[in-house]
Hints:
The chain has about 550 residues and is mostly helical. It contains 19 helices and 10 strands.
Amino acid sequence: MTHMHSQSRFNGSQWPAPRRRAPWSAIPALIAAIAALIASCDGQPPPAGNVVDHPPGPNPPARAGGPLPGLSEAQLAMFSASLDTFKELSSVAGGADSGKGLGPRFNLDSCAGCHGFPAPGGSSGFVNPEPFAAHRAGAKNDAEIPFLHADGPVVEARLKWLMDADGNFRGGADADGTDGRRPDGGVHPLFTITGRTDARGCEIRQPPFAAAWNKDNVSQRIPTPLFGLGLIEAISDSTIAENSLEQMKKMSQTPNAYDPQRPGAARIGDRVKMYEQLGIVGRPGRGRENRSGNDSTITRFGWKAQNKSLLMFAGEAYNVEQGVTNELFPNERDEEATPLPPACKLNATPEDDVDFQQLGKPASAAARTPSEQFAAVSGDLVKFELFMRMLAPPKPACDVGKAGDCAENILRGSAVFDHIYCSACHVRQLPLGPSSIEAISAQRYAGLYSDLLLHRMGSCPANADHTARCLADGIAQGDARGDEFRTAPLWGVGQRLFFLHDGRAHDLPSAILAHKGPGSEANAVVKLYERMPAESKQDLIDFLRSL
């Protein structure tokens, strides 16, 4: 469970060395201290000293990537078959060694290409495979895109405002540069299949990314890690809602109400006061939920919690990132300013579905093992869903709750994490509801370090070089507004190379500081971080790298 740590008082320029856990009942005594410390943060923070991040090397011993413990023999066989498909390259026509349906527009040609580090299911590695995919099989793409780098993260591009094929805003722009524009927000794939040997006759242009970049019209996104998503799917809607300020206020009206996330700890009313003092809100709250448009339940997957289920998450990515139509998204995407020519619609749709020809071969099917039957008949979409559902969560380098398991600096960093209230949004663990997969139910808790809520993260103009300065990206997705993001889970963060939704931060200290901006719910927490001595900052970074 999440714990707060406290000392009896704060002393202006000196940060207390956290040593032992204090109960949540100490929150009322801390509220005045929070206000006093935040008020003292006027002007520039004191020198940070030498805080060193220690990212993983090129071939780290992966603490993630395997199946959930306790899966049955049949489930393990399905996981293995699904992993093979996850690593498969896609081509336009398909073949013995590739999947079918790439393009006509795409970002990459493999799931594992986006989600490959430190193991399949992760995020971006040391080498970005997108520039290589741009020319595979003779494709004639220009890989000189302003925000695409071979040594940077895998990226997708969303445009804030609609543009025509020549890079002009649709609807024009008035003197202030915004009126008359039409909102966009959609993904515009980097590449096309033009020139590929398996796509003869297809001729289409890439979007005008250089013009879009120069007009501050690009919002980048990097892949989110997939580890442990089956556990996140098993968290109940009510558990997620209980961490929002609005829901806590309602619950606090019950006499003697205690925080259900922290049994035997603080009254909910005390936690409400703490959140209000810190400026943390979070939602869903009644009437303003990040809810699915299909069934009105709470969504939880993606940078803006825009997807409801792993099946939806997989289907959208297959269609948007690789251009493969499937049973959830059965139509070719034709959202660009230049319409998709008939010559580029090379396959019948959906390109990925149940293989009915295999179902019609009972004699051969009878000779197969259950996993071979599953792999032969099932569409890729179901395999991707099952791979994510049965993919184990990352393992921390040590267990801070187990005596003697972690080094002192890790324990101190864990205490700092609570002292400056990182854990108010990055909730250490949430209880699981019952799952149809017993191996998930057996976990009981997801140690994800997230409340899965949407939070305002600050909005401001871009830098002179068109890179983003604040976290707001101006993109509305689902019910998330342009300055809102879901609290990113921190499990596995110790083996990440790039941070934040656009990968701009290449180290953890930079990622923490980037949470500050006009209107950000994290401002008070970042100010507390800035006031810490270098030793405590270092302990915090070391703790995060242990996750």
